[in-house]
Amino acid sequence: MNLSHYLDIKLLPDPEFSAILLLEALYAKFHRALVTQHSDQIGVSFPQYRLKPRTLGNTVRLHGSEQDLLALDATNWLTGMRDHIHLSPISPVPESTKFQVFKRRQFKTNADRLRRRRMARKGETYEQAVSAIPSSVEREPDLPYLNLRSHSTGQRFCLFVELGNRTDRPTEGIFNCYGLSQNATVPWF
Predict the structure, then answer these.
(1) Which Gene Ontology molecular function entries are recorded, alphabetically (predicted)?
(2) Which of 31, 63, 84, 86 is catalytic?
(3) Over the stretch 67-100, which tens digit does the pLDDT of each residue have?
């Protein structure tokens, strides 16, 4: 894994579209590009990530080798977004940097949906499913998220992004089709 370079994509203010709507559109395009390229070598970070107030910010930073970032750019995945963003040049990562994990976090947020799924899978009655899955399993997530549509299933879902461990040394690994990883770090500066 070579995360020697990065590029920043900053959302520009737009009177017609909210920043979160633009961020979701940008991220959906990024996801489709990674799926199309079968890429697991490009990671993502959010330099303005905050829990209070809960936000991913208006900048997406892509990390990878110079070749991987150039190959991504060659796909023209930003078509339709160029009027809404400022794209930095691909640049080397600064020498002294920390490393951070950005990972996807999934929550059991809807007990009724979980019960319906259990009923279909196990052939249980509603009462049996309620007994197995109490309302207390629901959790109100407090992480920043994007509302996206899965490229593979077409289902809408919330992609919650959680910060993992910050370290002085990089941790090798692969990234999923959202540029996130459970253990691989990206440069954090």
Answers:
(1) endonuclease activity
(2) 31
(3) 999 999 999 999 999 999 999 999 999 998 999 9
CB 130, CB 116: distance < 8 Å:
no
* Maximum Cα–Cα distance across the chain: 60
Query: Which domains are present in the chain?
Result: 5-107+143-188 (3.30.70.2540)
Task: Say how far apart CA 159 and CA 156 lie, in whole Å.
Answer: 10
pLDDT tens column, 57-66? 999 999 999 9
For residue 134, the model assigns a pLDDT of 84
Q: Is 151 a catalytic residue?
A: no
pTM, two decimal places? 0.85
Is the CA virtual torsion 32, 35, 36, 40 positive or negative?
positive
Number of C-beta neighbours around residue 7 at 10 A: 19
* Phi/psi-derived region of residue 179, left when phi > 0, alpha when psi is between -120 and 50, beta in every other case: left
